[in-house]
Queue: 2 jobs
Job 1
Amino acid sequence: MTYSELSSQIFQKQSYLCVGLDTDPRKIPTHLLTEKDPVLAFNKAIIDATADFAVAYKPNIAFYEAQGPRGWESLQRTLECIPADCFTIADAKRGDIGNTSDLYARTFFEPTAAGLSFDSVTVAPYMGHDSVTPFLAYEGKWVILLALTSNPGSADFQRQAVDDQALFETIIETAQTWAGPDKLMFVVGATQAKELGRIRALAPKNFLLVPGVGAQGGSLADVSRYGLTADGGLLVNASRSILYASTGTDFTQQARAEAKRMQQEMKRYLGEM
Amino acid sequence: MTYSELSSQIFQKQSYLCVGLDTDPRKIPTHLLTEKDPVLAFNKAIIDATADFAVAYKPNIAFYEAQGPRGWESLQRTLECIPADCFTIADAKRGDIGNTSDLYARTFFEPTAAGLSFDSVTVAPYMGHDSVTPFLAYEGKWVILLALTSNPGSADFQRQAVDDQALFETIIETAQTWAGPDKLMFVVGATQAKELGRIRALAPKNFLLVPGVGAQGGSLADVSRYGLTADGGLLVNASRSILYASTGTDFTQQARAEAKRMQQEMKRYLGEM
């Protein structure tokens, strides 16, 4: 999906909601456990219930990998359930030396490799340019680079002072020499809203993928105030608050209601721009 | 495997060789391609040929993931072929927020999850303490944290000056507040031998996993001079130089010969201590 297509989707749906498909088999409503593939049945139901209000879906790969080979099969089938007008993110946080990152890129981008064709992959920056550029070689595919994450450990190294700025700022500046905003996004946690203004100044056109609204405590209002651009420029992720809005037979209705509630709030912020 | 067991293995075998099972299906000798699982057949042959000279095996997970579900099955079966007295490393370079790193730890450590039970996992440090500590919760299992990697991109961020030292030095110091040398190793590229002395001073007891000898150009002599300790303290990885020593029907003999050549050199360095 291109930059302008993603931007169009946001204004068309009046939403920058990304639904995180962090599906934990231990939390699936019990009535689905008799399905042949409960994870797939759950994901399909969530996608169908939320697709009117979401512009992106983001399976976190750890949840599938922890199920072994059948988890990878659930992931393949889940990806097939996501409508073509939605942006897809493999939240994998990969990164290795060049020839190995090339294999990770094949895994998530090249359907003939692992049966997957995501629009984007999250990548860890620590190993530098040759760990990231193999992902950029794919036409129409994106890298979403970790910058300032939502977790407590983000304070350990990401905020270390390098010259007169924080390490995450150096990473945002350096990565922009590798690719333009048409192929490069950054992960910025919603719990870090007070830094969003500075990050937006460093990366005025790049989309930001923002996890941490909801269960982790970030504020959608703050994120939107500092992060929205004329092109949209934001993908705000919610996982647990949508997936597990109910654990009963009404889980699709409750997931849809929560996705709609977030979309309505986003619509307001888009209107105020 | 415990610290003292690993140390014992090194002195018993007179070797600190780790064989990197970075098996690329496109490079497997053609006579194996008729096997039901050519990757497994190749790995089993390499393991059988080199186990007298190696103390550790390290599959890089990217090579298996790029094959989809059947790649994970090859990985499961490969792990079963590694002798119990060898240390096993899942070279996965994972790391995510706490509850997600916990799933990655389950994947590689908990046999009932993904059918895998490695002794250790390589972990990326960028997301800080709560991305690493879930791996440390497993009794007898290890974290191998990226410090100074072997690739050109290691210069981009790992060497950034933080106060009066490099970022990788800050990471080595900080990580030692999370775990002792009985559960924590560091990755240091063999191409970075001139820093090994400083790293050894910062982490006098920790094992160092050293990739980059062979195809990437690092020197075993330099690595051994600066890295060896009274407990061994080193695992030096070789992948391509052993796996693809020959691409013909004599690949096992040539792999064995190359592993033996490295072991003999290591024996000399252990004797010179």
Note: The first strand of chain B starts at residue 17 and ends at 20.
Job 2
Amino acid sequence: MTGVRALVFDVFGTVVDWRSGVAREAAPFLARHASGTDPGAFADAWRTRYQPALEEVRSGRRPFVRLDVLHRENLAAVLPDFGIDPAGVPAAELDELNLAWHRLDPWPDAIAGLTRLKSRYIIAPLSNGNIILMLDMAKRAGIPWDAILGAEVAQAYKTSPEAYLRTADVLAMRPDEVCLVAAHNNDLGAARRCGLRTAFIYRPAENGPGRTPPGPEHDWDVIAHSYDELATAFEV
Amino acid sequence: MTGVRALVFDVFGTVVDWRSGVAREAAPFLARHASGTDPGAFADAWRTRYQPALEEVRSGRRPFVRLDVLHRENLAAVLPDFGIDPAGVPAAELDELNLAWHRLDPWPDAIAGLTRLKSRYIIAPLSNGNIILMLDMAKRAGIPWDAILGAEVAQAYKTSPEAYLRTADVLAMRPDEVCLVAAHNNDLGAARRCGLRTAFIYRPAENGPGRTPPGPEHDWDVIAHSYDELATAFEV
């Protein structure tokens, strides 16, 4: 990986465990409004609305809005699926629940590996999450980013090429000086088409028990089973 | 300062000593191309072209371009003042010298004070410096920012209102939840007009020997003589 100067990271699923975190944050809400609901199923349902909402922006049908706005809309939209009338819940309570995405825990091996990588490389999120979402998450969990990059800085959602190319541009680097780390083949494929280097990291628990996500489907530049392996592959 | 959740910082002069740093970085270049030149005078001359270049963008006469681009143009423009023909110097050598602004040292009290403030507040630059400039500077000097904000994220240069208001917006905060820290009255005045809180910090050495800058000219919310005093004023 000669010439790589910055590692940029997908975050939801790659650095943090979104499903457990959202389920944990939603549990007290569900106990009040829809007792008996499985919080994991609620997290899945909320997350299922994520890609279609991004697609409205990626397609140009909707101007760029930050992910907190899309999450909030998706939350209101998903409540009826669990028998909850959104009009019957105070807006402030939904606003607070929406911050669940700001309070996700890193995978247990992430911080140590990121800290190693930071000693030699610029490390930053290249997430669809907006700046304050990533910032709150990092501050709560101690994720040692050098900067918060991603969709809001680029004003484009992955997997649009602009999300990757504008990130390389603000770093004043050629795309091949930047490596995307992700647990998702489609994200890495889009990055590779823009000229970035690619590192796949296995995150088998992302989707919850009994639903192992796909492994690497292409010859990504690095394939790692852990953040420890990732850091070693980058010689730190 | 009840209700403040983020402290955002002017950087050139407020957090780092731009004049000494640029002079240090320019000295070997000047020794090669204009021996006998005072590196401090060269730093002053380069910096003098800063505000007029920003004004081209603030006025709308020129679309937003990052500060690295303006610094590079200003470098080429200032060389003849020191008897150097810019066409006679390899572009790569000027590109390298332009990185002087990425290699400035913090004032001796800054890191300790910022580290204290970070324990309770979000801390970020709100500088006219672009993202990679601030990022390189922070990584070299160990400045513990939570995020890199400022002109490039806001796509507007201070003292345009958009620089302050868009920064509060990406933080998802009301302007009065954000405090600007600066050693410059005009920056604080513009921030106050946008509703931000204001903290003046004395940096008497900014302009070099024998040229003490103005002290606080208004009743800023906080007036501090050091980063230690600043942190204490914010009760950390």
Note: The mean pLDDT of chain B is 97.
